[in-house]
Write a structure and sequence with these properties.
Elements (H helix, E strand, L loop, with lengths): L5 E7 L12 H11 L3 E8 L3 H14 L2 E5 L10 H9 L3 E3 L1 H13 L13 E3 L3 E3 L8 E5 L4 E5 L3 H19 L4 E9 L4 H12 L8 E9 L2 E10 L2 H19 L3 E3 L5 H12 L3 E5 L5 H6 L9 E6 L3 H8 L3 H7 L4 H15 L3 E7 L14 E7 L3 E7 L4 H21 L4
Parallel strand pairs: 1-2, 1-3, 3-8, 13-14, 13-15
Antiparallel strand pairs: 4-5, 6-7, 7-8, 9-11, 9-12, 10-11, 15-16, 16-17
Helix pairs in contact: 1-5, 2-3, 6-7, 8-13
The structure holds adenosine-5'-triphosphate (ATP).
Adenosine-5'-triphosphate binds next to helix 5.
């Protein structure tokens, strides 16, 4: 059999269809399958009705050569995975003596008699191989047909993960023919998703011509766009060459808004630049309420380059603590480039920093006006040079505050690199 190329994942359990529980098993399984060179072609969550599970299982079998179902292996009547799989594969359920013994022993060790309903857990589709559960009672099951690998794993993540590592990963790797997947992430800021798509699509549409199977996806978050480039093949050197080439071409097409190709976050990139230059930063924040300093101090070692800051929400604080002239606020408004610049200069002077940042804006939902709608944020950085910009960020209050801290970090990065974009 194999190599296994496409997998489908089914998360079984009605509780996963409520707002209280989320299917995380498929995230773990997807990451591990990808590392083993298997692409996940689809996944779904299905409730505890046998007919529903049988239907999605039947469909998955048509599309994939590996189908993994998690959950529904317990002893109660709503644990229908074994029955649904037996029905679809047209294999009878048979009592498995070893499984029964293992479950009995587990109870006996705790000085208890096995409840009769646990017998259900020993009823398995004919030909299924039990996978020992080191942590719970429900054993996993592996079934191989002529051209499919079907794996049933218990729902609790702490039972599923070790079982996958012990039995499923080695089974897939054995037939993978050395295939593997590697991924690189190109991170971009200061550009919208459609701008990044426009610049990168002509480049990534030609990926894969070198014989390595490649895939590119775009992920957008407030203040940041990520291009995920993955390559699948059998030769690690060839995969790395293809990825190096792909990342280099994307960087060239997008230009300086690319801030990271090695996984580092924007605050880590800025931290590294500050450390290299031997500079220390201070920030005066209004609408972000300390969010910029929070991101900067997430980076280990940041005490080497972060001094601190002042959350200057009220105008009095801007005036009394940062020395922003009252008539500047009266003349331009608190949300303006001159005020942002005076905040940046004030906090730099007051805390004795090399680079100062000022952020003042309207995060909403109230407080907007026709001239300065919600989302208007003025940001100033005074470091190598002094510059101030006004942005109009989209989204709700959280998104606007996140955009503002990203834009401030990007202005710092440009200043530290001596760029003027
Ligand atoms: P057990 O007999 O050990 O309970 P089981 O296979 O019957 O195993 P379920 O009853 O379906 O497992 O699920 C048990 C618990 O595991 C659920 O309450 C849930 O908290 C967790 N769980 C189930 N499926 C998932 C999933 N896809 N992602 C994350 N957690 C899950």
């Amino acid at each position: 059999m194999g190599p296994f190329e496409r997998a489908e994942i089914i998360a079984a359990g009605s509780e996963l269809l409520t707002p209280h529980r989320i299917d995380t098993n498929s995230l773990f399984l997807t990451a591990r399958l990808n590392e083993l060179g298997v692409v996940v072609g689809g996944k779904c969550v299905v409730g505890d009705r046998k007919a529903d599970l049988a239907l999605v299982f039947r469909q998955a079998l048509e599309r994939a050569d590996v189908v993994i179902i998690s959950g529904g292996l317990g002893p109660t009547a709503d644990d229908v995975t074994r029955d649904a799989v037996a029905e679809v594969l047209e294999r009878p359920l048979e009592e498995h003596a070893d499984i029964l013994d293992t479950i009995r022993e587990r109870f006996a060790r705790r000085g208890a008699r096995m409840p009769e309903i646990n017998r259900r857990q020993a009823m398995v589709p004919a030909g299924a191989v039990p996978l020992a559960n080191a942590v719970g009672t429900a054993p996993g099951l592996m079934i191989e047909t002529a051209n499919r690998l079907i794996v049933l794993l218990p729902g609790p993540p702490r039972e599923l993960r070790p079982m996958f590592e012990a039995f499923v990963a080695p089974r897939i790797a054995r037939d993978a023919g050395g295939r593997m997947l590697r991924r690189r992430v190109v991170k971009v800021t200061g550009r919208s998703e459609s701008q990044v798509e426009e610049l990168s699509q002509p480049v990534y549409s030609t990926f894969g011509a070198s014989g390595v199977e490649m895939d590119t996806t775009i992920l957008a978050a407030p203040g940041q766009i990520e291009l995920h480039v993955s390559a699948i093949g059998a030769d690690p050197a060839q995969i790395d060459r293809a990825l190096d080439d792909a990342v280099g071409r994307l960087e060239a097409a997008i230009g300086s808004p690319v801030f990271s190709t090695d996984g580092r976050a924007l605050e880590a990139v800025v931290g590294d630049l500050l450390r290299t230059k031997g500079w220390r930063v201070a920030a005066a924040e209004s609408c972000t309420g300390g969010g910029l300093l929070s991101r900067l101090t997430e980076v280990p070692g940041s005490s080497g380059w972060v001094i601190g800051g002042i959350v200057a929400y009220a105008n009095d604080v801007k005036i009394d603590q940062l020395g922003v002239p009252a008539d500047l606020i009266a003349g331009h408004g608190a949300v303006s480039e001159p005020v942002a610049q005076a905040m940046a200069e004030g906090v730099r002077r007051k805390l004795g920093a090399d680079i100062g940042v000022g952020i003042t804006g309207i995060a909403g939902p109230d407080g907007g006006s026709p001239e300065k709608p919600v989302g208007t944020v003025a940001i100033a950085v005074c470091g190598g040079t002094t510059r101030a910009r006004t942005f109009l960020f989209p989204g709700d209050r959280d998104a606007i505050r996140r955009h503002a801290t990203s834009a401030a970090l990007e202005m710092m990065r440009q200043d530290l690199l001596g760029q003027n974009l």
